[in-house]
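## tool: complex_structure
## caller: assistant
## args:
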Amino acid sequence: MSKFRKKKSGGDVGINTSALPDIVFMLLFFFMVATKMRDVEMKVRTQLPKATEIEKLEKKSLVNYIYVGPPVKKEIFGETPRIQLNDAFATVDDVQQYITQERTKVDEASIPFLTTSIKADVDCKMGIITDIKQELRKANALKLNYSASRDVSRD
Amino acid sequence: MGRKSRQTAEINAGSMADIAFLLLIFFLVTTTMDIDTGLQVGLPPMPEKDQVVTSNQKQKNVLEVLINANNQLLVEGEILRVEQLTDKTIDFLTNNGKNPLLSESPEKAIVSLKNDRGTSYNTYVSVYNELKRAYRIVRDEESMKLYGKPYNKLNENQAKTVKTKYPQKISEAEPVDIGGSK
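## result:
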């Protein structure tokens, strides 16, 4: 009997798919590590501006988000930029109450570390943003962060 | 059958791929790659009811930056592009009295930013970014001179020294509504 057999006995040669689960698990781990659970359904479009002097938000649990932008469903809600707090549309007057509400959810010692992050679309006008800032000043939420992605086109 | 009975029963791993796909699709659908970076600013506290907010600073110690509804910049009466703002601010901060029209010392230097309600948010963020960039560059220069390290690598006390030399004083005035919010 020859030691080396040239021909495979049997019919068609199928692709060996035993490595498929490994590939899929790798993709899965990537997504588990690089993403976080989305807890807010975006009702407004926020294309963030680009900046170079950006800093990372330290503790995600101590950040309140304010979304500003034109609504996603333009046919129903129109094109003018709206504010979204948590999951619903809101007006400028709701901001102060929202901040006080979020304050009750954290313990006393962490209150000075609370930050507000404004995720506003690039096409928003400063009128609405300035109103939000005034409301934040009234609510004494003075740590503010304008959400922006890293600008890689400059040095 | 004369076969020896198998010692170990093998688990059929054919459905492993299905489970993995299911989990993958679940994560694809329910997660986002959120951006958690941004420009950090500190808002000034609201003035008390009877407190009158006056600024008794000399004109030369204040760098006036105005943005109108057409996203154009006016810095100390001079029309500039956003890219030129960093250099102008650095000149202003490091002046130390040389040019009588610019600041006497970096401790007294204040940047005053005023925008129209119709200014686009993108322009506002670019302008603020340039101002922060100017402060970072002068602070980096100072910290390299004193400690041989860039500003963000200093420890607390060293950072404090550089910060007292170049305090970041960006004041924002109440915006006007000349251009209209459209």
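## assistant note: Chain B has a mean pLDDT of 81. The beta strands of chain B are 31-32, 37-42, 62-67, 73-75, 78-80, 110-115, 170-172. Handing back to user.
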